[in-house]
């Protein structure tokens, strides 16, 4: 119920907004503060917003194409957006617009319809599996892994050349983020290759890539593995077609802590032939 969440965000912003100096006295909102704000804004209204799971508050609010419309107009007028924060009891943070930004949550990485297209066979998926097709991220990742879409990308359209790509795990829940899929890449000399990690964020066709989520994945990968390079990618369903895969510029360990922005290094559309249910 996005409209109710809109009221909660506005309540918190107004609580800490200093009209005299036009600044926020506090920008980082904790899980407890969000839960308390939900309870306070619930008072006197027939429809209630549940306060027992504030960890998903921003994730649900930012999901889909209407994220900017669901953000309070009064907060947008003061040129503040919100970024999900996780770990240490944090929920989200009010962040000022970047120069030139015109809406709270622009789609910075839309599907590039002019991207090069490659055909990927889907005949190897069992018929029984295809009939269970859904549109959720788990199904998208499972299909991409089974059809080796990521491996195909780094074979035919990579910005970061690899000697080898291996899928490690799906649905990795870490303290500060969740990585939809993680891959191990090998680079350098064939006899003595170096390891890099590839983090993957999956999105349904109606959802956009959220830059802060991808950055959180990169930082979490460095925190949990002894590698010097992480290559972040995004995998988004193209309804009735297949996948749009965007490869962002590789991130070196010294860059990770202060990483604020992603740049597209390569992208492509991978057409599933024949089409697969849910995608």
* Helix proportion: 25-40%
Strand proportion: 25-35%
Question: What distance separates the N and C termini?
Answer: 26 Å
Please describe the biggest sheet, giving its number of strands, its sense, and whether it closes into a barrel.
8 strands, mixed
Number of helices: 10
Q: Give the number of DSSP strands.
A: 13
Return the average pLDDT rounded to an integer: 93
Task: Name the structural class.
Answer: alpha+beta
Rg estimate, integer Å: 20 Å
Oligomer: single chain
Poorly predicted segments: none
Order of helices and strands: HEEEHHHHEEEHHHEEEHEEEHE
The backbone outline, from C-alpha atoms, is globular
Provide the descriptors you would attach to this structure in a database record.
279 residues; alpha+beta; eight-stranded mixed β-sheet; three-stranded antiparallel β-sheet; 13 strands; 30% strand; globular
Describe this structure in words.
The chain has 279 residues and is α+β, with helices and mostly antiparallel strands. The protein has helices at 2-16, 31-42, 57-62, 67-70, 73-77, 127-130, 137-146, 149-156, 211-224, 253-256, and strands spanning 17-18, 23-24, 28-30, 80-84, 90-96, 117-121, 164-173, 178-188, 193-203, 229-238, 242-248, 251-252, 264-273. Strands 6, 7, 8, 9, 10, 11, 12 and 13 form an 8-stranded mixed sheet that branches. A 3-stranded antiparallel sheet has the order 3-5-4. A hairpin with a 4-residue loop joins strand 1 and strand 2. The longest helix is centred in the N-terminal third of the chain and has 15 residues, at 2-16. The relative contact order is 0.13. The mean pLDDT is 93.
